[in-house]
Amino acid sequence: MRKWVGLLLVVMLIACSDEALLDDVHISDVAEGAVEDVCAEQQQYLAEEMICAPPLTCEGQQCAAFGHAIIAQLQHVYGSLTEEESIATDEAFRIIASYQIDLQHERIETEEDVSQHEMDLHAELWFDFAWLIPEYARFDLNTFEVFESGETLAHVYMNNPEEAVGRWTLGVNEENIELASETMVTYIHEFAHLLSMRDEEIDYYADKESCTSLWIDDLCFRDDSYIKHYYDAFYTTAQPDAVDYYVSEYAMTSISEDFAETFAHFVLTEQPTTTRPVDEKMMFFYHYGNLVELRADILRRAVTWLEARVALEY
Fold first, then answer.
1. From 66's CA, which of 23, 25, 113, 224 has a CA 20 to 30 Å away?
2. Which residue range(s) make up the domain with 127?
3. How far apart are CA 43 and CA 85, in angstroms?
């Protein structure tokens, strides 16, 4: 979960069809073909997400330099990619609407009684996330919910333990975040929770007595899980509440929030050149070639995501 209020402005090229009401099911879809025709030179059309992005020209650990180059380019144009400024309020939590996710068509649908205006807004919120996070990396999200809250910015949780796949919910606040950088940090933070909470990471059938690896936050993290490796690297001794140890104040609240916040900064900042404990935490992720490549994939999408976001602000 990520705290504060507000989330997600929106990108572009979302359309709700005039035929959106089928058998009492509301469907919001991306305008098919709309993006493919407008991809700029040196960009490619990504059919699964129906967006444009620069091509990914690296694999594994080689993608570190690719990602650094994009960050340098984006920081030159937009400034810091991790700046945040939101402030909590006392607004109570309330779910506004819940949707099923159709990954094949990159759309959301619901049988709930929602207005066309709400449908359009919520579809934009979903596509805003889906633009930035590759489809292959969020394959097990099957539910999207929109809520209001003065404290929670976004969350991810398991919605059906009995399902083998497709049993995770992404929730976002209907309110708006002013800073595009804060929106990106929030999306990537929540994705990091999903990354660290899948079945290959946690034994959901183990209790404290039967867990033979790491029992923390009432969960049994497997021996080869990201959180177990993160714990072994940084949490076998007490962590002081100091800025040299955490990327943000929120990261101090638990190891899972520390992992998610640090992962977001790993994606959105250049590789550290110093040896502070917080820098060593970011370097942790560079040991995984798959995560280095995923970082580059997210960053190339951020190129057009930010272009679209800025275009909507003018």
1. 224
2. 2-200+287-312
3. 32
Residues in the chain: 314
Residue 254: φ, ψ to 5°: -170, 165
Within 8 A by CB and 6+ apart from 202, the residues are 219, 220, 221, 222, 225
The pLDDT tens digits of the residues spanning 12-38 come to 333 333 333 334 455 455 444 444 567
pLDDT of residue 145: 97
- Count the Cβ atoms, other than its own, within 10 Å of residue 246: 22
Asked if residue 282 lies in contact with residue 262, where contact means CB atoms within 8 angstroms, the answer is yes
Question: How far from each other are the two terminal CA atoms of the chain, in whole angstroms?
Answer: 31
Give dist(CA 308, CA 64) in Å, integer: 25
Residue 301, token pair as written in the block:
């999408």
- Considering the domain boundaries, does residue 149 fall inside one? yes
- Residue 190 falls inside a structural domain: yes
Is 214 part of any domain? no
Task: Quickly list DSSP for 15-84.
Answer: E--TT-EETTEEEEEE-TTTTGGGPPTT-EEETTTTEEE------GGGHHHHHHHHHHHHHHHH--SS--
Residues in Cβ contact with 270 at an 8 Å cutoff, skipping those fewer than 6 apart: 68, 71, 72
Query: What is the per-residue pLDDT across 186-218, written as a single tens digit (0 to 9) for each?
Result: 999 999 999 999 999 999 999 999 999 999 999
